[in-house]
Write a structure and sequence with these properties.
By secondary structure, this protein is an alpha+beta fold. The chain contains six helices and 13 strands. A five-stranded mixed beta sheet has the order 3-2-1-5-8, with no helix packed on it. Strands 4-10-9-6-7 form a five-stranded mixed beta sheet. Strands 12-11-13 form a three-stranded antiparallel beta sheet, covered by helices on one side. A hairpin with a 4-residue loop joins strand 6 and strand 7. The structure holds copper (II) ion. The site of copper (II) ion has 7 residues, from loops.
Length: 315
């Protein structure tokens, strides 16, 4: 019984409440079903050919009302106290900011370090602050029994104490768009020493390019690609000609495009001005056949120039 040697964790509490409710419900299921079968037989017409009136029995009625009431209220009591516990993070918890967006997680630590997967130290409580850049997401770590909605424009949080070493799944539990099912990450629980190693390691080098951009790269233009990756454009636009939520950047330049601009359908030729406008303010042109799903990105003029040059070269 590992939980006898340390304070109950959130996972212990959630499991205990779940077990309690389950056992109580199962007991009532068996009890009520058995009673029903027993009465059906005992008071069948065969055995009681002559119906009789049964007068009320106040003691019996009070018992079958009060006993279940107290038992079921106890479910509420344990659920409520554990819920209160889960909404009160310890003061010494390490605060990690989580940013959710379509369709990735990003984690920011107190020292400014960032990562795509969550790293924590064994037995050190963490408070996870949840922010969304776009739509509703759900942050869940099933292994530690925590799950909260990530609501745009609202600051939500959860906390837990990682009591097991190892790697666990992080999932998005709210249907948040076409690639919702790929919105996955990992929780790495490290020993205190390993965590310090990781936490204080300098990583000036940009993170390794992900598989999704390993495909055709315009020679020499890693800077533009880095921008596209950092600004999450590649979640919706491919560079290899495959369709995602938005059109592929490959072969886009110079193409004739049916768009709705200012409420009127028009045909435009994709040139630098068009690219610049549709990136700066995605609402100016609505491309036919695509959902109005593009968020307004924050690009510097330099980054915008790089991206346009990149798209132009990507034939
Ligand atoms: Cu999501």
């Amino acid at each position: 019984m590992p939980f006898l040697t340390r304070p109950l964790s959130i996972a212990d509490r959630v499991d205990a409440v779940f077990l309690y409710i389950f056992v109580l419900s199962a007991a009532f299921l068996v009890f009520i079903t058995a009673l029903m079968v027993y009465f059906t037989i005992k008071y069948s017409r065969k055995r009681n050919p002559k119906p009789v009136d049964i007068e009320g029995n106040p003691v019996l009625e009070a018992t079958w009302t009060l006993v279940p009431l107290l038992l079921f209220l106890s479910m509420f009591y344990f659920g409520w106290t554990d819920f209160a516990y889960m909404r009160n993070p310890p003061r010494d918890a390490m605060v990690i900011e989580v940013t959710a967006r379509q369709w990735a997680w990003n984690f920011k630590y107190p020292n400014g370090k960032r990562s795509d997967e969550l790293y924590v130290a064994l037995d050190r409580p963490v408070k996870v602050e949840l922010h969304s850049q776009d739509v509703l997401h759900g942050f869940a770590i099933a292994a530690f029994r925590v799950k909260e909605d990530v609501v745009p424009g609202r600051n939500n949080f959860l906390w837990f104490t990682p009591t097991l070493l190892g790697t666990f799944d992080i999932q998005c539990t709210v249907m948040c768009g076409v690639d919702h099912s790929k919105m996955l990450s990992k929780l790495h629980v490290l020993s205190e020493a390993d965590f310090k190693d990781w936490y204080f390691r300098d990583e000036d080098a940009p993170p390794p390019a992900k598989a999704q951009v390993a495909a055709p790269v315009v020679p020499g233009d890693t800077a533009a690609l880095a921008v596209l990756q950092a600004k999450n454009c590649l979640a919706c636009h491919s560079v290899d000609g495959s369709e995602k939520v938005g059109a592929s950047f490959r072969g886009l330049f110079g193409r004739k495009q049916n768009v709705v601009a200012g409420g009127k359908p028009t045909e435009v030729v994709v040139d630098e001005a068009y690219l610049s406008e549709s990136i700066r303010d995605p609402r100016t042109h609505q491309v036919e056949g695509y959902p109005p799903a593009m968020p307004a990105p924050s690009l510097t003029d330099d980054e915008l120039r790089q991206v346009i040059a990149y798209v132009k070269a990507l034939q």
